[in-house]
Amino acid sequence: MSNELNDRLRAALRPIDPGEDFTRKVLAQIASQARSPALAAPFARPTRAPDFRWLSAAALLMLVAIGMVVMHGWQARRAQEGMEARRQVMEALQVTSEKLDVAYRVVKEKEHSGA
Amino acid sequence: LYVNENDAGANEELMTRALAGEAAAFGSLVRAHQGSVYSLALRMLSDRYEAEDLAQEVFLGLHHNLSSVESAAHLGFWLRKVTLNRAIDRLRRRRPDRPLEEASSVPCDPTDSDPLLQRRLRALLAQLAPAPRAVVLLRYQEDLNPNEIARTLNMSINTVKSHLKRSLATLRERIGSTVHGERRRTVLGSFSDDTGSLI
Lengths: 115, 199
Known about the structure:
Low-confidence stretches of chain B: 184-199
Strand content of chain B: under 5%
Number of strands of chain A: 0
Radius of gyration of chain A: 48 Å
Order of helices and strands of chain A: HHH
Structural class of chain A: mainly alpha
Mean pLDDT of chain B: 83
Number of strands of chain B: 0
Largest sheet of chain B: none
Mean pLDDT of chain A: 84
Helix content of chain B: over 70%
Radius of gyration of chain B: 18 Å
Number of helices of chain A: 3
Largest sheet of chain A: none
Structural class of chain B: mainly alpha
Oligomer: heterodimer
């Protein structure tokens, strides 16, 4: 059976070329987008933006490390001050003990001579 | 460089070169496919300026997504799918009272054996609903089989066949009612019920 509608449709719907000017317009739009940093060309691999997550993590780690060093220094100084205070107290006690010893001996000698 | 849109080897080489950043290769890809993309857009939208705008938009989209296109066959599939989806979106957004461009103002192929009848067919096609119009275009402009049409338009094959059958019946009926005299007898005689063989 004749298939003329089929052929007529194929003939009526042959592709129409929009012309060389169309290609130029597309390429010009792509070029203008490539010049705009917000619409960079997809072909060229985009330059990687610095990864701020890593930067902030590194900064945080550094702050924690500095904090620990400062804390350690402060604790060491406190411990040293404590030791110094203890030494001074011991020295004072020793001096006092020696003085008391001398006084005790004097009192004892006076008691023996009086008797 | 001029290549045919159906030359898979040449298209794949152009795709590789375009992906490497060669603008001329992308230009050749555009040139190879612009007829198909522009014609689909034109026949869906019935407006030359809007069709050109849509076709440019599709190629800009291709430029951005070229790395996701796997092969020359996939390129054709991608271009048709994106063009028709975007055309249907535009038609949905379009004001319903907007007048369509006259079929006579749409450029005609100078090799047309019967330019009047072909213009009339194109005008009747423009009156079909967007989905069946897309099906008819893919069948007769792009020469796809119903399976390929179903895949492109994300439809079941039965829906594609049903759209084709009803659209052809509508076109046959309308073209018959507008052609007069001797011409009418010839056309009606030759457009007898051959829908089955078309599908």
